Amino acid sequence: MASTQAHSYEVALFGEFFAKDLPAILNRITLRSESAHQMHAREVVFEPFDVSHQRETGSEPVLLRARKELLEPDPKWILFSCLKPESVRVYPEATVRPCALCQVTGDALSFASALGYVRRSQIYKRGYVFRRGMLVIQMFQQEQVDLKTQKPIPAHTDTLWEVEVKTAMPVRTQDTPMKAAIDAVLEVQLLMKGLLDLRRQDV
């Protein structure tokens, strides 16, 4: 299991745009994708219980995220974690970072706690999901959480839209050449040129 995770990577590009540009961007992505549907996801971020100690000793804590797509008929939690991106010198064109994920049946939040993690924050993401070959393209606005009800607060109409173009599943280098995954996200970067600036990021 450890060796598989060590060779599994997420390849991604990121962007953001103003709400006024939504129709044009939506049309271009839809026309060049194999499928599209609405999304409304809950995402809970966990950090290690000893996060302060890890930082004091010079270690960068590994965050754990739990995600559930609320619009699915029988939504399941997915736990995933990505490490620090590989150097820009090695992969200058896209964000490439070690990543692992697994689907959880039952209470993923309690499972994360049992692993030694504590909840740090949560957000909701509402928008659209597109599939294009090995990629998933998420386009969404973040919704904050009402502290009293724990329900999402609809995003303001002026809230920026965020875009994540990434491999749908972690790329296992023994199965898929890294170049193929990078080329796939760069194709999307090229087809969105002039409408949406997609770029790598180091966070």
Automatic annotation (TrEMBL):
<dbReference type="GO" id="GO:0016592">
    <property type="term" value="C:mediator complex"/>
</dbReference>
<keyword id="KW-0804">Transcription</keyword>
<protein>
    <recommendedName>
        <fullName>Mediator of RNA polymerase II transcription subunit 18</fullName>
    </recommendedName>
</protein>
<comment type="similarity">
    <text>Belongs to the Mediator complex subunit 18 family.</text>
</comment>
<keyword id="KW-0010">Activator</keyword>
<dbReference type="Pfam" id="PF09637">
    <property type="entry name" value="Med18"/>
</dbReference>
<dbReference type="GO" id="GO:0006357">
    <property type="term" value="P:regulation of transcription by RNA polymerase II"/>
</dbReference>
<dbReference type="GO" id="GO:0003712">
    <property type="term" value="F:transcription coregulator activity"/>
</dbReference>
<comment type="subunit">
    <text>Component of the Mediator complex.</text>
</comment>
<keyword id="KW-0539">Nucleus</keyword>
<dbReference type="GO" id="GO:0070847">
    <property type="term" value="C:core mediator complex"/>
</dbReference>
<comment type="function">
    <text>Component of the Mediator complex, a coactivator involved in the regulated transcription of nearly all RNA polymerase II-dependent genes. Mediator functions as a bridge to convey information from gene-specific regulatory proteins to the basal RNA polymerase II transcription machinery. Mediator is recruited to promoters by direct interactions with regulatory proteins and serves as a scaffold for the assembly of a functional preinitiation complex with RNA polymerase II and the general transcription factors.</text>
</comment>
<dbReference type="GO" id="GO:0006369">
    <property type="term" value="P:termination of RNA polymerase II transcription"/>
</dbReference>
<dbReference type="InterPro" id="IPR019095">
    <property type="entry name" value="Mediator_Med18"/>
</dbReference>
<keyword id="KW-0805">Transcription regulation</keyword>
